[in-house]
Amino acid sequence: MSVTADDEGFMAAAIRLSRQHLGRTATNPSVGCLIVRDGVVVGSAVTALGGRPHAEPQALAEAGERARGATAYVTLEPCSHHGKTPPCAEALIAYGVARVVISVTDPDLRVSGRGIAMLRQAGIEVDAGVLETEGRRSLAAYLTRQTKNRPYVTLKLAVSADGMIGREGAGQVAITGPQARVEVQALRAETDAILVGIGTAISDDPLLTVRTPGLEAQSPIRIVLDPSLALPLTSKLVQTAREVPVIVVASEEVSPLAADAEGLPPSALPDISPTEGEIGKERDLTSQADSSSPATEDVGQGATPQPISPLVGEMPGRAEGGALPTDPADINSRRAALEAAGVEIVYCNPYHPEVLLPALATRGISSLLVEGGAKTARLFLDAGLVDRIQLYQSPVVIGKGGIESPLQATDIPSGFMHMSTRMFGDDRLDEYERGL
Q1: Catalytic residues
Q2: How confident is the model at residue 171 (pLDDT cuts 50, 70, 90)?
């Protein structure tokens, strides 16, 4: 059976559904599934919060007997192996669906092609690759971690009319308006982790949480590139570290194991190990990371947008860095105080993202938002490790003492495609993406 316009319409709906749980399905991707019979949707679901149940069994349960002879539209190839849940391919077979339409084939070697083969062996017609480009965009974080062993990286910049991202010594400078800030909160809510440099953390004292009413629990893990453990104990990040996880990435030179590790390359150092509150936004004991697939499905964002005023220091743009301390007692004191406050410290060269990103992936972080400092932005751009750019352009003029943006709309790196332009009040958002 050839793919029809109706197939594309139902798949587009499944993809929209899948986006509801982005960032809230732990290591599983957020997958959408529709069960359609005689042109009518009789069952629909998105991967549940925490990652289980998967979308297919939920949609099939809703359809019940109406699933027999129906068509299932799934944004990602149904799993074919036993993990913490039975294979979704088996559920589709058991319910007697006649046809399965898939957007993206799963790159997980435990699944890739096997789910399709299992369905076909059971006599079910399978069509794959329907709206694949759109499907891959919705699954970008999962696909990047699976195929590149690192998180999908989004760089967000707000640039004034005169090309600045802040003003030296001025603390917070509000470049974008309230409507744009609401959109940024939504981006944070669907991202696993957010990263800034120590200069921004000190100068701006940001909180880096989600402030939209109803979405606060979706705040991302907060990461600070802090080679010398300089993050103040009085900072908002440290003061709230037991509520929303904070990871400080320090130089190996200040590690308590530095003497033992001396002379070893960064790759020889231990990986970041999972800790309490490790992944995503569900930080309670009901969080369900599914070992049946390193990343597979779900998170709604139905809260009514409300104007968000910037907290003090939410506008990054400071220079990061600083000399490493030389007094071991001072280093040990800082380390102990930060850990006592609930901050996790990992030792991995902060300015080598090609080492840091795979380490973050080992703890299940699939998406990372880089939102702080000109130097930090340039670090990821120069390393070629940015996958998406969100460039806000404002009519605000910074003037004398401005901090120049590391990126303008006129010098987007090669390899990026302009995906969309949207207006939020007087602010323009241009989004660029690399191919997956």
Answers
A1: 56
A2: low
